[in-house]
Write a structure and sequence with these properties.
Blueprint: H1 8-22, H2 38-45, H3 50-56, E1 59-72, E2 75-81, E3 86-92, H4 93-96, H5 98-106, E4 112-121, E5 127-138, H6 154-159, H7 161-167, H8 169-190, E6 195-196, E7 202-203, E8 215-218, E9 223-227, H9 232-240, E10 245-253, E11 265-274, H10 278-297, E12 301-304, E13 307-310, E14 316-319, H11 320-328, H12 338-347, H13 358-370, E15 378-381, E16 403-408, E17 411-418, H14 423-438, H15 449-456, E18 462-468, H16 469-477
Parallel strand pairs: 3-5, 6-10, 14-15
Antiparallel strand pairs: 1-2, 1-4, 2-3, 4-5, 7-9, 8-9, 10-11, 11-18, 12-13, 15-16, 16-17, 17-18
Helix pairs in contact: 7-8, 8-10, 11-13, 12-13, 14-15
Length: 498
């Protein structure tokens, strides 16, 4: 970097870096034998008063980043922040010596230090550490944003998450809570006999969902591949293989739009259970999500924005056609021909694509008129066969499938169904998808001959589910943008300053 491009603060920090080198101190340090964390100190000694701590003379060794600092002549205070918390450190020249005190005085916010000291309480009764030894570890060459205002530009906070994590307690809370939620999901499925597996990220055939893929190429095989849009078909092959209950938590990739609910790569859990069906998957999704919510929050009630979401079991269940009729008055139970459905769609201002059948129109009606009206957890079931190529037909009405989606506060959180295990029917569904692709549906799936052949060996009746983990974490953390629960979301390039 050209020295002329540096700000005044950055130039001063580089001068201090050189001063450290002149003293024989590596500005970027080496191993430091930390023995304690700030959280451990608080948890263990917060209940002791001044006199008790004076008598105990507890020695600790901590390390972390300077986030606040003030001096008073030959003594001063700083706040040291590590992963879980922060604690005040008191530094006196006559205790640490002139050399170490000079390093403390010239230290900047953002510098990383190590401290050996004694736990005590100040005159204001704040639990603190009195430094016996002060060690410089890493020089921060860029200043931190103002501690009380952080990164004001949310886009910049997402782009430079490493800075956001330093100055934003809420970002750290979410970052720490996310893995806890995922562990609870794993614990739930492990505890019910499911086997966690891994399946390929590179797929040679597009399938398992309706979505636009990212396309890449394998040089040695000289073959095109897709980054997976779903884990469904490999997992169902494992059901054919007799594993009976499997799940995978992993990243999916969809080359589609970005907004508060969508990121090009996102995390889901998909699970498949032999001898179950759509109803069994409803029970499983409800129990899994309500259990994880309670284990994380200690309550079934979630505050999401200004709404109270009730996650306690016994969620509402409604057929998609009934939900549409309740909101719009249009009764698709009695409309089963494309001409009438198209006419009704035009009357309601619903756009009809060239590849649409009646089922696509029904799905679009739901998307446009019903989805946003749902607040409390609601299973919407009975999706049209045209939009559900991997789900079993409903025995009573083959226009629809035994499939459901879970909606909470206008957002889809889960998708599940009675799995189609009839290889003849499955081949026909794939062929219908190919026809849609020819008519311009970029999200239609491809023919997966190997999967059809797998079904010909016999797959037991089964239920399958997929839950969007990022959205579930958003709900639990009371966050309204998916980029704020992903540590490194995809962003547009920062505009160049001209």
């Amino acid at each position: 970097m050209d020295i002329l491009e540096l700000t005044e603060q950055e130039r001063i920090r580089r001068e201090k870096m050189n001063e450290l080198r002149a003293k024989g101190i590596d500005p970027f340090g080496s191993k430091f034998d930390r023995k304690n964390t700030t959280k451990e100190i608080r948890d263990r000694y917060e209940s002791f008063n001044h006199d008790q701590l004076e008598e105990m003379k507890v020695e600790v060794v901590i390390a972390g980043r300077i986030i606040r600092k003030r001096g008073q002549g030959k003594a001063g205070f700083l706040h040291l922040q590590d992963r879980d918390s922060n604690i005040q450190v008191y530094v006196r020249q006559d205790t640490v010596g002139e050399d170490q005190f000079d390093i403390f005085v010239k230290g900047d916010l953002g510098d990383i230090i190590g401290v050996r000291g004694i736990v005590f309480r100040t005159k204001t009764d704040e639990l603190s550490v009195k430094a016996l030894e002060y060690t410089h570890l890493t020089k921060a060459l860029r200043p931190l944003p103002d501690k009380f205002h952080g990164l004001q530009d949310v886009e910049e906070a997402r782009r430079r998450r490493y800075v956001d994590l330093i100055v934003n307690e809420e970002s750290r809370r979410i970052a720490m809570l996310r893995p806890r939620i995922i562990r609870e999901i794993q614990k739930y499925f492990d505890g019910r006999g499911f086997i966690e597996v891994e399946t390929p990220v590179l797929h040679s055939i597009l399938g398992g969902a309706a979505a636009r893929p990212f396309v890449t190429h394998h040089n040695t095989l000289d073959m095109p591949f897709y980054l997976r849009i779903a884990t469904e078909l490999p997992l169902k092959r494992l059901i054919v293989g007799g594993m009976e209950a499997v799940y995978e938590i992993g990243r999916l990739f969809r080359n589609e739009g970005m907004d508060a609910k969508h990121n090009p790569e996102f995390t889901t859990i998909e699970a498949y259970l032999a001898y179950s069906d759509m109803e069994g998957m409803m029970d499983l999704v409800e129990d899994a999500m309500s259990t994880v919510t309670y284990n994380i929050l200690g309550t079934y009630d979630i505050t999401y924005g200004e709404k109270q979401i009730k996650m306690a079991p016994k969620w509402a269940r409604v057929h998609m056609v009934d939900a549409i009729k309740n909101i719009t008055g249009v009764d698709f139970w009695t409309i089963d021909d494309l001409e009438t459905a198209t006419k009704v769609a035009k009357e309601k201002g619903v756009h009809v694509e060239k590849h649409f059948g009646v089922g696509h129109i029904i799905q679009t009606f739901f998307d446009e008129f019903v989805e946003d009206t749902i607040t409390q957890p609601t299973f919407v079931y009975g999706h049209p066969i045209e939009v559900s190529p991997l789900a079993k037909k409903n025995l009573e009405n083959p226009r629809f499938t035994d499939r459901f989606e879970l909606f909470i506060d206008g957002r889809e959180y889960a998708n599940a169904f009675s799995e189609l295990n009839d290889p003849v029917d499955q081949r026909g569904r794939f062929e219908d998808q190919l026809k849609e692709k020819e008519l311009g549906n970029d999200e239609a799936t491809e023919m997966d001959i190997d999967f059809v052949e797998a079904l010909e060996y016999g797959m037991p009746p089964a239920g399958g589910l997929g839950i969007g983990i990022d959205r579930f974490i958003m709900l639990i953390c009371n966050v309204n943008n998916i980029r704020d629960v992903i540590l490194f979301p995809h962003m547009k390039h920062k505009p160049e300053v001209k």
